[in-house]
Design a protein that fits this description.
Blueprint lengths: L5 H13 L7 H13 L6 E5 L5 H4 L5 E6 L2 H10 L5 E5 L11 E7 L8 H8 L3 E12 L4 H9 L14 H10 L2 E9 L9 H7 L13 E8 L5 H4 L4 E8 L6 H6 L7 E8 L6 H11 L5 E6 L5 H10 L5 E4 L11 H9 L5 E5 L12 H18 L11 E4 H10 L11 H10 L4 E5 L14 H19 L3
Parallel strand pairs: 1-2, 1-4, 2-3, 4-5, 8-9, 8-11, 9-10, 12-14
Antiparallel strand pairs: 5-7, 6-7, 11-13, 12-13
């Protein structure tokens, strides 16, 4: 944080001593801490720029936490308040950050309004970023400026120096020109005071819906460093595991091998057979032997039920850097998998989701009710996760194995709630604060067998999962 004026320096030092701010209540600051903590994890390294008294850092998860602030009084106060916590507090100007560490999560809370060169601060912050670092920039909605100034005028709030009043678009633009890719924006908190029951209803529920959301007090912008692409490097950088769950798909097994292009450093193929009533398991064993000299193929039979269980079993024995799912019905063409590899290997996204609803699809590829259901769930997810989704139920989903291992540890937050696996991975990726990117594919008609999906029975299960996840992702 940089406020060059001696007058402002004294002002903030005085606040640090008096600990007064009646308008921005403890309730307000707790809400910010609670939301940032949702996206931090026990094994995360966290940096807060403009950490003030250190309360936010002290109350979020992380195994290595650092707070910097320009004010010696603030840092002294933070060290006193949180001497029992393993946090490093440093006096440092945000316009000249000198840290010899890269962080997983960097938080700028109520900071950018007070700095005189936001772009420079963001570029300094980039020194502390690795390619997968996530940035959370929190600031308050400029719509509230007149009320804030009025409360200062009548003495309800401590007076603050003149500051930058920024819209979401302004912040996104500053992040972009400073070298960041903004992948999500969120608004929260329509009532920044604590009144029992009323605050709970207004902020936990009403604030999440259109119209009410427009009046939210807090803006959150999520970003990651823009990738510095070198195509010659990333095209051969990573190994990939393609997991193919197969139930009653005997006629598609060999085509899955023959049609799979070569990409990346190495491809490992894992077939997981799931309680078939035809000769799928025998066919998988034959194919493994037939192509042993040219393909790295592993096989297994799932002990549980459902595609989600099959995918987890396949992922548990995977060795590739990148994990992919290819449905054995081949309605997502194997020839499209290099698009998914390129998207994640180049850093354009951390989690790549296929979407079938962009290009025209084969006439019998998707039944009409399924088509309507997919559109409904894409709308529901767009609202639930504050990010546009075109298709949530496409079988092909791609992520790094290191992120999947984190998702496993974090799965206790949601529980074992998804027999299909799609929602488990999408909600898990959201909780890990991964950038989710969609890759359009042309959805093809089946050439063998019948679908294992029941439109009504499984549709009801999906609705229940959405309701469950809304409590875990939206109404938090």
């Amino acid at each position: 944080m940089n406020i060059p004026s001696h007058k402002y320096q004294n002002y903030f030092n005085d606040i640090a001593k008096k600990r007064k701010n009646r308008f921005f209540s403890k309730y307000y600051w707790n809400e910010i801490t609670h939301f940032c903590n949702y996206f931090s994890h026990e094994n995360s390294s966290v940096l807060e720029v403009g950490c003030g008294n250190g309360d936010l850092l002290a109350n979020i998860a992380g195994d290595k936490k650092t707070g910097i602030d320009f004010s010696e009084d603030y840092i002294t106060w933070a060290k006193e308040r949180h001497s029992d916590k393993n946090i490093e507090f440093l006096v440092m100007d945000a316009n000249k950050i000198e840290l010899n560490q890269k962080y997983d999560l960097i938080i700028l809370s109520n900071l950018i309004g007070f700095v005189d060169d936001i772009q420079n601060v963001l570029q300094e912050v980039k020194k502390c970023c690795h390619p997968n670092t996530k940035i959370i920039v929190q600031y308050y909605n400029s719509l509230w400026e007149p009320l804030i100034k009025f409360t200062e005028l009548i003495g309800l709030k401590q007076k603050t120096p003149s500051q930058n009043w920024l819209s979401t678009r302004d912040i996104n633009n500053l992040l972009f020109i400073s070298g960041y890719d903004v992948y999500r924006t969120t608004k929260r908190l329509i009532f920044p005071f604590y009144i029992p029951i009323l605050s709970f209803i207004l902020n936990k529920y009403l604030a999440k819906f259109p119209i009410f959301r427009f009046f939210s007090f807090n803006l959150y912008n999520f970003a990651k460093p823009l990738p510095e692409n070198n195509e010659e490097v990333y095209t051969q950088k990573y190994s990939t595991t393609v997991v193919i769950p197969a139930r009653n798909e005997s006629g598609n097994i060999e085509n899955a091998i023959l049609r799979l292009p070569k990409f990346g450093k190495h491809i490992e193929i894992i077939f997981i057979e799931g309680n078939s009533t035809d000769d799928t398991w025998q066919k998988i064993q034959q194919i493994q032997k037939k192509y042993a000299a040219t393909h790295d193929i592993k096989i297994g039979q799932q002990k549980g039920k459902g595609k989600g269980d099959a995918v987890r079993e396949g992922y548990s024995i995977a060795t590739g850097d990148i994990l992919m799912i290819l449905d054995a019905d081949l309605t997502v063409p194997p020839e499209d998998l290099p698009k998914f590899y390129n998207a994640i290997a180049s850093g354009k996204g951390d989690f790549i989701n296929g979407t079938r609803l962009v290009y025209p699809m084969d006439k019998e590829a998707m039944r009409f009710l399924n088509y309507l259901g997919n559109h409904f769930f894409s709308w529901a997810f767009t609202w639930l996760l504050d990010q546009r989704f075109k298709d949530t139920l496409c079988g092909t989903k791609v992520m790094f194995r290191k992120d999947y291992n984190k998702l496993i540890k974090n799965r206790k937050y949601f529980g074992e709630f998804d027999p299909f696996g799609d929602f488990d991975l999408l909600f898990g990726a959201h909780k890990l604060n991964l950038k989710i990117v969609e890759v359009p594919i042309r959805y093809k008609e089946r050439t063998y067998g019948e679908t294992n999906i029941s439109r009504f029975k499984h549709g009801v299960i999906l609705l229940r999962m959405c309701a469950f996840a809304s409590r875990k992702c939206k109404f938090i």
